Batch of 2 targets.
Target 1
Amino acid sequence: MLDVLIFATLNGVVTGLLLFMLAAGLTLIFSMMGVLNFAHASFYMLGAYCAYSISLYFGFWVGLLVAPLIVGVLGALIERYGLRRVHQSGHVAELVFTFGLAFLIEESVQFFWGRDTKNYQSPDILDFALFTLFGQEFSAYRGFMIAISVGIFIGLYFVLTRTRIGIIIQAAITHPKTVANLGHNVPLIFMGVFGAGTALAGLAGVIAGPVLTTFPGMAVVLGSIVFVIVVIGGLGSLAGAFIASLLIGLLQSYAIASDVGMQDLLNVFGIDFPYDHPLADLWGLTLPQIAPILPFLLLILVLIFRPTGLLGKREE
Amino acid sequence: MTTPIRLLLITLFATLCGVSTAQEPVRIAFMDPLSGGFASIGNSGLKQLQFAADYFYNSKNGILGGRKIEIVPLDNKQSPTDTQIQFRRAVSEGIQIIFQGNSSAVANTLNATISRHNSRNPGQEVLQINYSAVDPILTEAECSFWHFRFDAHAIMKLNILTDFIAKDTAIKSVYIIGQDYSFGHVVADNAVRLLQEKRPDISIAGTEFHPIGQVKDFTPYVTKIVASGADAVITGNYGADMVSLAKSIIDSGLDLPIYTFYAAYDGITATLGADGKNKIRLIHNEVSNPIPTEERKAFIRAFKAVNPDNDVTQPRIINALQMLVTAIEKSQSTDPYDIALALEDMRFTNLSGEEIWMRGTDHQVFQSLNISVHTDEGIEFDADNSGFGLFTEYSVPAAETIVESSCQMDRPSR
């Protein structure tokens, strides 16, 4: 049991930190522009595919550096020449814009790279087991993923709370007009944040591609869950996004690792249902089976009992 | 109007009609996911069907004395709902033959929809050519006169697969993981049943279902497989679910044989590469390397010349098309009823030189079943241009794959 617990925790942390890299950019963009960027996960996918192509010629490490830059610059350009124009028409237009963008990016990726799974591999230098516990290896690459994500969190936190740029960004989130009156270029800040946010999504794609496989459905699989994290963590809260990411990563991992189901719950109450009962499917549900919907359940609970999210301040 | 003139007019009219139908192509719909998470499999199948139609017929004299075959791609996104919409579209365009293979859930929907449509619209029937959906129910309880399956169903495959596993005395416990829908459950239930019959000493270390196409990372599942102490894994996963699972197992340093239905081609072979060598085995019909006949080798080479990035992943599509055309030629008709009658009990020698049989009572095809291993040794025709491919280790002739069917077919009367 202990071995399952330890590995479930490790798996949860890896997934959680990966989700955080996506959520960090999304929550910043949301708090600044008031718009959920539906295309966020598509930038993640774009990052993975770009890095795959670059790694074919220059190796993994060049891809790690260059692909997020490409995605970030593309994100900034989209903000400058697309989103900013649409911004004048209000939030709904922006929402629809990012929604359309998500489809556009996904179809373009499939157009340029094809629809089959890409053979994007982790670098040979990280191709060893960091440690082996109870007969299961924990690969060095996963350790590398944890290191990168934690580094990003610390770096972002430092920039946002300890530097002048961070203070201006934070001010622009809550009081954009005042910041503009003080002589700061608010649209430029917006563009920078959008670019940085999409670059982070791209980076997440680069490091996730080799482990979670690079295929056309990779954005869809992660897309909705990232929104859940942003809402649970509290809109605009980086720390909240961090906690929510880990929470959801661990929640899913533990749920899959567990072996309990409705049957066990009913046994606790001493209720027994026959197997030919019309609702037998419901009584037969197990926690691993419903693991992927648990985050959405949590989302509903948070929205009911704490609408601002865990660390959100916006509505206070 | 005098009789001679009337006769002349009728003859003229008939001739004109005859001429116009001779020019008209025979339209066949290909209804599978062409976008979304499973698009790679659908598109690869489409290319194979398209190529086979051109290679065998359109580049020559066509069929029925000069008519071409036109393949009409219809994207059902592997969703039963979209399948209904695309079926309506096919009907409105007058298409009467539908190829479909991916997802038994979709095949079941299509089967039910076609049965209903055909009973209500006599004269406009539609024929379902199922080249890959392997839920046994399609040729058992839900069997239909209008449905023909050109792949061995899951129980037939599992029968052979469990024979193979039973021979390996090193295997003491097996873990079964699958997608949480009809096909995944059929695989799990029957694998458990057959293994208990053949090797009562093998314990089932665990049975796990995960949502189809939704899992980001299979490592948590692999943790459970490790903890269960299983010696082997059986899975019916396909597409991204298959790659991710195999990658997670290999990344975790597990040295287990993985028995699968679909772990090859469309990027999977390339992604598994050297890590999966001699670990991953597939149960499938049609032998892989070594390819038995020059005809099939020539076909594969011609296909690769046109589609360098794709492979002939599903020879059953070719069998299905060739048998369909044989039935059309034999009955000299494109009416689904006539085609269906001609297909029943057809014995056909395919590209691999093997005689395959379409059983009349349940419309299930029988041909040899094979177990192949993922390797780079002895591979003449690789997959994904990776140097790796499938090498057939174990082959069972068609006669030994035959299973009884409980099908009580409701045959239309004409």
Note: The two ends of chain B are 35 Å apart (CA to CA).
Target 2
Amino acid sequence: MSKTLFDKVWDTHVVRKIEGGPDVLFIDRHLIHEVTSPVAFLGLKSRGISVLYPDRTFATADHNTPTINQHLPVADPLSANQLDALESNSKEYGISYWGLGHQKNGIVHVVGPEYGITQPGATIVCGDSHTSTHGAFGAIAFGIGTSEVEMVLATQCIMQPKPKKMRINVNGKLGIGVTPKDVALFIISKLTTSGATGYFVEYAGDVFENMSMEGRMTVCNLSIEMGARGGMIAPDETTINYVKGREFSPKGEAWDRALAYYKTLKTDADAVFDKELTFDGSSIEPMITYGTNPGMGMGISHEIPDAAHVEGGAATYEKSLNYMGFHEGDSMLGKPVDFVFVGSCTNGRIEDFRAFTSLVKGKHKAENVTAWLVPGSHIVEAQIKEEGLLDILTEAGFALRQPGCSACLAMNDDKVPAGKYAVSTSNRNFEGRQGPGSRTMLASPLVAAAAAITGVVTDPRTLIEELV
Amino acid sequence: MAYDKFNILTSTAVPLPIENVDTDQIIPARFLKATERVGFGDNLFRDWRYNADNTQKKDFVLNNPIYSGKILVGGKNFGSGSSREHAAWAVYDYGFRCVVSSFFADIFKNNCLNIGVLPVQVSPEFAEKIFTAIIANPKTELEINLPDQAITLLSTGEKETFVISPYKKDNMINGFDDIDYLQSIKGEIEEFAENLPL
């Protein structure tokens, strides 16, 4: 029977099917961090059981960590306690631990691929919804709750009903200034924040085929923001070239076997999806969100739609716009910006910093803007320096912070104050996401750069045209 | 780890007719720093419940003493966003044993099932009826009958059935969890692991 890419990877990992219930799914690689793992380890202890395959789990600290002065003790006692718990649990159970200060420390969804933990055709989970990032490699990767973290530690399996399948095709040539982030925000704006709930998505079409691995990771990362458990892209030469030779990638004969498996990982020509959508890539503009969920996005030159033209009840819509201090029919261009955040598992990779730097080169940060540039890992941080980007950024009035999740969810000190506006390359514009009362506009690194140098929401294409 | 058994629950309910309630609202990230599962109920809907100075926001439903009960009735797409199980813990710790909505986000629903909070998905029409009935009379009771997979608005007798897998239903009724099951097939899992492509 014809199978989709998703079917092939899922079916390969089903240990047992339960009549009228979920599948028992084997997990190849498990990533853990300090926030969603401590209670799972407590559960193991209270049951008196151990970790079945410690070499299949990898721990990094990222959600709570400061992004300056990482050599100093963490000041917040609650954060420090959680970081200590991750370290002691990892050591007790023999799990690789990349804590603060470790060369491999960084955002879990940035370091996983960098070190080859992420492999095509693997099943990968983490107690974090943006685990969908790893789907960029043709892996089945999704976020889980803490009870499931405990399951994976104890048995390397979770129990999940097989989701429905959706394919999203985007073809055509992307316009100037349109990045993978814009493609993702465009798709989410069309599907809404719940449009893909119950589905696992495959992204197909030449727009994704032509993307770098960094771009594909940005797209797959945001799958959860339309409700999908995950999204994936069939592995190709770009994928294999990225994976080959990384520290945890298979080597020698194991690599040859893996390669033979990777080559089977594509949807059969006549395979059927439960739902299929197609969009024209050339119609996508640089995007920005205006509301309090990632589905509330629009082309940056458009006006905020009225309640009659959006999903969700009018009351919910009004609450959202009130929170943002925006109105139906407003243009986003020229809206004030207080903070700019570049980073996160969505846009904290080298390509994102290259894009940001390309636009701010030779210009200067606006006086009214506080900018936080936070690389996703030490590898990204080193690349920024090696490629000379840091010199350009410094010249333009920007500073680089140290790796971590930072202002994406503001568990550390990187908080946007109440009522202030942030243009952020992260993934969520929920109320209070970047700090209590903060107001977030999600956008690409180019839109963030345009905001950072002009101090207001600005179409980056107007600045690119200046450069040409 | 066994959790509370769930059979038939009859209770008044708290209405929250807002759509797309994300888990950052249910429990904001700054309250995720505990290393034990205690006290999350205090911070359920923290920023909707309290002002910055920790005084109560009088217009929020949890601060309105006329509404109470073990059932939370939410708007469409309840529990979207972050996978934090802390959201389900907060709902449980506050005292809810059941969440009713016309549509749930996947991970939140799964997390609820894994800790013994029953997510009951109803039709949008029935959700509207429930909201209307509770707002008209906060003493309105709902009956959630898990063995029969039925939810009844006791004031009118209107009833709808809901879907739950036989496996999860059995777990909820008996207070079993997935680890109990997975531990019982550990040998099979270890054998399976020997023959994987990666």
Note: Helices of chain B lie at 23-26, 46-49, 86-94, 106-115, 124-136, 166-174, 178-184, 186-193.
